[in-house]
Amino acid sequence: MPTYSDSAEATTAEDIVMAVQGDLERTTPLALSHRIRPTGEAVVKLTGDLDIATAELAVSYVTDVIRRHREPLTVDLSALDFCDAKGLAALVRMAGFAEQKDRPFRLASPSSALIKIMRITGLDRRFSFSQIPALHALPPR
What we know:
The chain is α/β, with parallel strands linked by helices. It has one domain: Transcription Regulator spoIIAA. The protein is built from 4 helices and 5 strands; from the N terminus they run H-E-E-H-E-H-E-H-E. The chain has helices at 6-26, 55-68, 85-100, 112-121; strands at 31-36, 42-50, 73-83, 105-108, 128-130. The chain has a 5-stranded mixed sheet, covered by helices on one side. Strand 3, helix 3 (85-100) and strand 4 (105-108) form a beta-alpha-beta unit. Helix 2 runs parallel beside helix 3. The termini are far apart.
């Protein structure tokens, strides 16, 4: 059985840390914005990566929108580049908070990759989905 020296293990661990830091630097930051449609519905747009680094920020932002607006909420995922397990958990937490506040909660325009992950995990049955026409025409808040 081969043995590894402390310096070899340190170099390997160092390499892993450097690789993870490099990956984190390459991730797309999450941009958050929301609009209120003429119907009163709040639409939150997530742009970039919803992942371990951004999930808490996204939950905080969306729960704040839910607290301030009494109408249904839709989360627009059309510009979401990536979503990991923490991101999926964040979406579940957002939906749970909306339910606690008795607000309808929908997801709009998820990518086919995200839909596939939701189907595999069973989360596609957890969420309502919708299409949002002409979101770009509404001014951001």
